[in-house]
Each structure stands twice: as structure tokens, then as C-alpha cells.
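Quick review question:
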């Protein structure tokens, strides 16, 4: 009899656990506006997200809904609700034509039943440009640093105009007059050859900062809002011991924590390094993935529509295209070569 009672208790416990586990359901996103990867969105757009359950509105805050423009930087705005399952974000300022916007929802968001938005969600779209029959004409030229490899764009001084920073022996700063003419106002990273430079608000203060890859290091320079930058810190990347380390970089929130992270290719070591943003203007090297033999050009985007930013990278010498698929936690699965490039 004791064995029978024990068995009944055990079965009851198992049924209770099964019932509890079956009642748990992660919160999900059913639709977004603008649509994912839309390329012609109005600059004044309001972002809307529809969930598959009623939302605990208290979990929708400036810390769990983060919006970045690739040129304009971080956006503040008003969060509102339509019904019980739709959240809207109305930016305080318009986006800039041509920029890519990332709207990040973190896992802090919950339903009324306390079910979390597991691994978060990221919406990406591009602000459209005006249709015109105009032509491009030569306007002006500027002398820039030797062996410049890329140019970063963004409003570094808060005047509403898009400024430029170039890589090279020095990173040069060019401020926009507002009429399409530029004045060189300074340099950073003196006599250290920057192979790739980007503008990003690394510490979420609303001011664009500079990220520069030099040799086997990533350097962070914090902006002051007036177009001046001060060195903050650096991190080391895997290296081959060669003097010819060559990198390119893409940026996205790979682990859905509301902070923009980095993915950096290295043609010399044959890998792609994932560097996570710590939220205090520093980054940590999370992992490196071997991708072909000489990975070079690198971009990020949600390629499979699951709300997480994946990575595409080409192999410079093998002419192959690879996809690194993100599971939402910044852990990536490398595909076989997707295509042989012409």
C-alpha cells in the first residue's frame, strides 16, 4: 500500500510539473510596422509592434525599447499602446533619409502572464529618399589621408547635417557646412593606421562616438557632441602576427540587450570576431568564428526573418559567400558557402 501511495504521489507530481511547463509560453511578435527590411520608410514614421498576447505595459520602457539610426544615432521618443497587445514608438525627431534604423526590443518585455520576450527582437528598415530625375555633378574635392579605406557618416556635432570621418594614417574629421561643403576640423589617432572606422553611440548618451580598427586592436573614442573625440579604451583581437592585418566591421545588437555590438572580419587570421557592448563605453571579445580562409567584406541583417541580426561575409581569395546565423544570444552557426561569387 505504501508503494502504491508513493506511486500516486509521484504521478501527481509529474502531472503537476507537466501542467506547469505546458502553461508557460514565451511572448512572441506577430507583426511589425514598418515591415522587416523595408527600404522606403518615411522619415517621420512611427514604429509599431504587435505581440501574440496582452502586454504588461510597465515592462515597455526606454530601457527595453531602443531605437538607433545608422546616421542619426540613438533616438528618444514616446511609447504608447493600441489596445492591449500593440506598442508604438513615436520618435522625438525624424530619421535621416537613407539611413538604416534598428528598433530593439529586449527580453525585459513581458506579457500580462509574465511570459518574457525570450532573446528579444530586432526590427530593421531603411528610410527612403526622395524620387528625383536629377543628375550628379562634380562639386568639390578634399585632400584626405594616405591609404584611406572607408568613410563613416553621421551628425557628430548635433547641427542636423551629416559629417564625415575617414580612416587612414590618421582618422580625419570633416564637418558639413549644411550646404554640402566640408571643412577638415581635426584628426584623431595620430600616426596609427586605421583600417576601418565607424560612428556609433557606444555609451547611449545620444552622442556619436568613433570606433576604429588598428592592427589587432579596436579603439574607442568618445564624442563630446561638438565634433571632438577623446580616447577611452581599446580591446585586442585575434591576430596572425602579420603586419598586414586587414579588417572590416559591421554593427548590430547581436544579443538583444539594447546595445549595439560589433562583428569584425580579419583577412589575415581567417575569422570573424564578435565583440559585445558592455554598456559603459567598453566592448568585450565574445567569440571568433573561422570563416573560409580570408574573410573581408562583412554586413549584418535579419536574413531569415526571425528578429535576430545575422552576418554575411565574403571570402576574398576563395570567392565564397558565407552566412553566420544568429540564435538571438550572439551565438552563430556558420553555413556552408552559400554561393561562389563571380
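Suggested answer, residue by residue:
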Amino acid at each position: 500500500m505504501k508503494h502504491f501511495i508513493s506511486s500516486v504521489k509521484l504521478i501527481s507530481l509529474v502531472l503537476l510539473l507537466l501542467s506547469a511547463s505546458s502553461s508557460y509560453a514565451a511572448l512572441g511578435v506577430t507583426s511589425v510596422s514598418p515591415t522587416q527590411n523595408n527600404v522606403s520608410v518615411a522619415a517621420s514614421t512611427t514604429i509599431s509592434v504587435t505581440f501574440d498576447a496582452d502586454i504588461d505595459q510597465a515592462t515597455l520602457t526606454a530601457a527595453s525599447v531602443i531605437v538607433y539610426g545608422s546616421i542619426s544615432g540613438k533616438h528618444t521618443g514616446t511609447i504608447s499602446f493600441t489596445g492591449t497587445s500593440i506598442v508604438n514608438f513615436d520618435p522625438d525627431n525624424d530619421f535621416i533619409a537613407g539611413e538604416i534604423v534598428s528598433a530593439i526590443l529586449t527580453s525585459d518585455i513581458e506579457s500580462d502572464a509574465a511570459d518574457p520576450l525570450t532573446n528579444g527582437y530586432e526590427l530593421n528598415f531603411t528610410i527612403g529618399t526622395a524620387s528625383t530625375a536629377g543628375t550628379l555633378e562634380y562639386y568639390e574635392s578634399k585632400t584626405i589621408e594616405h591609404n584611406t579605406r572607408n568613410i563613416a557618416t553621421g551628425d557628430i556635432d548635433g547641427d542636423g547635417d551629416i559629417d564625415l570621418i575617414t580612416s587612414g594614417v590618421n582618422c580625419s574629421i570633416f564637418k558639413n557646412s549644411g550646404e554640402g561643403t566640408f571643412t577638415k576640423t581635426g584628426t584623431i589617432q595620430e600616426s596609427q593606421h586605421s583600417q576601418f572606422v565607424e560612428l556609433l553611440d557606444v555609451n547611449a548618451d545620444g552622442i556619436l562616438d568613433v570606433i576604429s580598427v588598428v592592427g589587432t586592436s579596436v579603439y574607442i573614442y568618445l564624442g563630446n557632441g561638438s565634433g571632438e573625440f577623446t580616447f577611452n579604451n581599446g580591446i585586442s583581437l585575434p591576430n596572425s602576427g602579420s603586419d598586414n592585418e586587414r579588417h572590416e566591421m559591421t554593427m548590430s545588437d547581436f544579443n538583444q540587450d539594447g546595445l549595439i555590438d560589433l562583428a569584425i572580419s580579419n583577412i589575415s587570421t581567417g575569422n570573424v570576431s564578435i565583440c559585445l557592448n558592455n554598456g559603459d563605453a567598453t566592448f568585450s571579445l565574445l567569440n571568433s568564428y573561422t570563416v573560409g580562409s580570408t574573410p573581408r567584406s562583412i554586413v549584418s541583417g535579419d536574413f531569415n526573418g526571425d528578429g535576430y541580426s545575422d552576418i554575411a561575409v565574403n571570402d576574398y581569395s576563395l570567392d565564397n559567400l558565407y552566412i553566420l546565423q544568429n540564435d538571438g544570444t550572439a551565438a552563430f552557426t556558420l553555413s556552408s558557402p552559400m554561393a561562389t561569387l563571380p
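Why it works: The two ends are 77 Å apart (CA to CA). The first strand starts at residue 29 and ends at 33.
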